[in-house]
Amino acid sequence: MLQIYNTLTHQKEFFRPLHEGHVGMYVCGPTVYGDAHLGHARPAITFDLLYRYLLHLGYKVRYVRNITDVGHLEHDADEGEDKIAKKARLEQLEPMEVVQYYTNRYHRDMEALNVLPPTIEPHASGHIIEQIEFVKKILDKGYAYISNGSVYMDVEKYAQDYPYGKLSGRNLEEIKTETRELDGQNEKRHSYDFALWKKASPEHIMHWPSPWSEGFPGWHMECSTMGTKYLGEEFDIHGGGLDLMFPHHEAEIAQSCAALGHDSVRYWMHNNMITIAGKKMGKSYHNFITLEQFFKGEHELLSKPFSPMTIRFFILMAHYRSTVDFSSDALEAAEKGLARLTEAYNRLMKLKAGDQTSIELTPLRQLCEDAMEDDLNSPIVISHLFDSSRAINTIYDGKGSISSEDLSELQATWKTFVVDVLGLKMESEAADGNQDAYKGAIDLLLNMRLEAKKNKDWATSDKIRNELVALGFTIKDTKDSFEWSL
Questions:
Q1: CA gap 93, 95 in Å, rounded
Q2: Cα 375–Cα 21–Cα 50 angle in degrees, nearest 5
Q3: SS3 state at 449
């Protein structure tokens, strides 16, 4: 039975969905004012892994991943200039032009990484009315106040009735000490109060009418609103990066409890960070590498281009709750590991069954399921697959045999966990028409070489082999055929 680490309780818990056979899952998506980088890829792949495994288990999953296109401010969550509005002003574009451009590019990168699309992808800007209504509920319950056209959460009053800080493990006194007074916050009662609705300054280009002012919702409000709109007042899983735990997810809990009288989320899940030289990768640190730069090899820290599947494999090689430190060397190691896995997969699909199984096979399906059910332990799944590849290579090299029943089970298990659960595109899975023609041409040349060898036409055989090797191909002769790679 699936166990997941619930950040709220700080322990692994058996997953029991609220509604039998159905799962509601909400994951914080991107703020679309720039290209996606490796730090964005990690939560996308982490929760894609969870989504895929829940589907594998037979659940019907409603997967909501939001697009933040308003209310995400510079400097801190409540003050400064909205990042999308700033981008629009600097580039003399409509804010929604910025949103659409980077949303399209995000979708392109996610498709390249083989991240399944969510079932619902709501935009914050498309749910302004719902966010206003949610703010009204919090005001009506007495946990917010109006100041100069803006609405703020009264954290101190809320904390008298609910445990503020329970997700991040902070208490209010600690938060008071850590929160600094910022210019322009004199309309707040306390520096740690956060905005539910902000009155727009005259130069602000993204604003909507509300009972309190022409303005826009606070950053935290969108997730509380859209999560409950599409998944109900209580739902199963809320996910996101560890950097969102405080203040974003803590604020979400406070908003939901204040408005509804209870928390909305049963299981909180957080992936850890991608780091560079031990420091978090992110736009705010100016140390990020975009996914497009990875795919093209256009960055000073990259030794070469890396394929989307190499990036995906690199992320899956570490447990989602562990820190992953980026380096070009680590990516090259992941690339080699993926090549080995791909070779074993393709060899497995070419195997012919014998009368009996002459070598010992591990219970691969059970081992992989046990690893996945232990809080999505993808690196252990990968290690079991590598262990299995040794048996595959032994049989492929003619040093063992496998029965038809065992071969079918082994092929089905590899396809289930490599392709369906880990979401890795193997060479045969990824081939499009052009790649099929390319592979066909190489196979044709090597079959001509095979025919020349049979006819003892060594000159032609050597010429084909040598010229392919000079072009960068590796050619390996097998008992009755050949195999090649680039």
A1: 6
A2: 30
A3: helix
pLDDT over threshold 60, residue 431 = no
Do 293 and 165 share a structural domain? no
- Quote the domain boundaries for residue 365: 279-429
Domain termination residue (choose one: 271, 300, 334): 271
Q: What SS3 state is found at 57?
A: coil
The answer to whether residues 402 and 440 belong to one domain is no
Domain co-membership, 339 together with 367: yes
Partner residues linked to 215 by β-bridges: 199, 208
Q: How far apart are CA 59 and CA 40, in angstroms?
A: 26
- What is the number of structural domains in the chain? 3
In angstroms, the CA 106 to CA 113 distance is: 11
On whether both 455 and 414 belong to a single domain, the answer is no
Domain boundary among 212, 243, 271: 271
Say if residue 36 is in the same domain as residue 185: yes
pLDDT digits 0-9 by tens, 194-227:
999 999 988 888 999 999 999 999 999 999 999 9
Select from 429, 442, 454, 451 the least CA-distant residue to 483.
442
Q: What is the DSSP letter of 200?
A: P
For residue 285, what are its two tokens?
A: 């640190």
308-316 vs 378-396: helix axis angle to the nearest 10? 110
Q: Residue 355 has which token pair?
A: 């009368």
Cα 370 to Cα 80: distance, rounded to the nearest angstrom: 48
Question: Is the pTM value of this prediction over 0.85?
Answer: yes
With 0-12 CB in 10 A as exposed, 13-18 as middle and 19+ as buried, what is 218?
A: buried
Q: Residue 189 in contact with residue 154, Cβ under 8 Å?
A: yes
**What is the 3-state secondary structure of 393-445?**
HHHHCCCCCCEHHHHHHHHHHHHHHHHHHCCCCCHHHHCCHHHHHHHHHHHHH
Q: Are residues 86 and 98 in the same domain?
A: yes
Q: Could you tell me if 387 and 471 lie in one domain?
A: no
Q: Is there a contact between 111 and 163 (Cβ–Cβ < 8 Å)?
A: no
Q: Residue 406 — φ and ψ, nearest 5°?
A: -65, -35
Q: Can you tell me the mean pLDDT for 343-364?
A: 95
DSSP state of 351: -
